[in-house]
């Protein structure tokens, strides 16, 4: 009789196997089957494949680690394949009587397969309402009462189940995500030019830029004023908060001043004697900017060169150093390059990881490293790209050609490789004029489809998992 391995020896051997080999081992006999189901084996496979599984707030639900691995693998396969009816269901969600100006997910971006998963988005419209939608069911959950002015922007706080909107007059309002109940309100002295949700360790807050160039920090959910600072006098300001919310980037195309970076804590906990801690970056004529999601404080800024002729991108690393007077901001240039003369000025810019920049120019999507090496260029759309959504797994673009394009990242090489997978088609060109926005979470993709009569609908694509 051959040597029989005990459970402990088998567990050690199985720890070197992948998922496919573990499933094969489970077919050998009862002992192998039991050992192959060991929780730690499948947990380690999940951790190696998905960094989110390392998070302490990771929600497993009623699933085992094995079930979670198999379900999530199937979901990723379906989102990469994109076969209509087999992999996803498409639904049109109508209700707004005006144009949808912005949308955002209020559900957390969790992968759950225990019946508790949900994909819920909120939208604001020129019709003066904010609405919540269940993408799986394809139904409207609630709609707010008609507001005095058109709603133009919103941010969401999935952890707090809150939605915050702002209207065309600068009126900010809080809404309960479960039922649309109204909460606190705050009025800016002029229309808002940007909103940023900030879930900072000091407490949740809202950053609102005003068309008069002032930046407001408000405590959430009561919208109490924490600070106000004039950034670019009389110039509408755009805002970008960093991953982790330690930094806030502010810029204005209508100002001769260079863009600024604020230390967020100094906005949320201001000193009576000192202005918020900030620094001005040594670039001018800023066109676009984005944070590198793979780094806590890496900022990429698109700007004109010294002659004001050619566009370039400079990457900075930010740091904070405590001093006798408080906090000093340290700015280190990491890389810089000029965009090709033949490239149309990009109108959209996103970051991926720590090294990759995605630029949209007309109908073309182009990838560069922060040092200027062009990695790829895609011309899948027939008309201009209107929006781009990026995460660790996928890129989705929307276009006036009435399609969404899905791309998938592969990290087998030195730099991430983006693979073009498939189109998601909208409605008829007779009734629709194209997609204007796109967002996604772990189980769904949703686009705003503009209609020819001046209204908008949502078109959702919900991906299904068959395994229990």
UniProtKB/TrEMBL annotation:
Pfam families: F-box-like. Residues 10-48 form the F-box domain. The keyword Transmembrane does not apply. Pathway: Protein modification; protein ubiquitination. InterPro entries: F-box-like_dom_sf (IPR036047), F-box_dom (IPR001810), F-box_SCF_Substrate_Recog (IPR052121), WD40/YVTN_repeat-like_dom_sf (IPR015943), WD40_repeat_CS (IPR019775), WD40_repeat_dom_sf (IPR036322), WD40_rpt (IPR001680). PROSITE patterns: WD_REPEATS_1, WD_REPEATS_2. The keyword Membrane does not apply. WD repeats lie at residues 93-143. Signal peptide: none annotated. Keywords: Repeat, Ubl conjugation pathway, WD repeat. PANTHER family: EXPRESSED SEQUENCE C85627-RELATED, F-BOX ONLY PROTEIN 3. This is F-box/WD repeat-containing protein 12-like. The gene is LOC101399006.
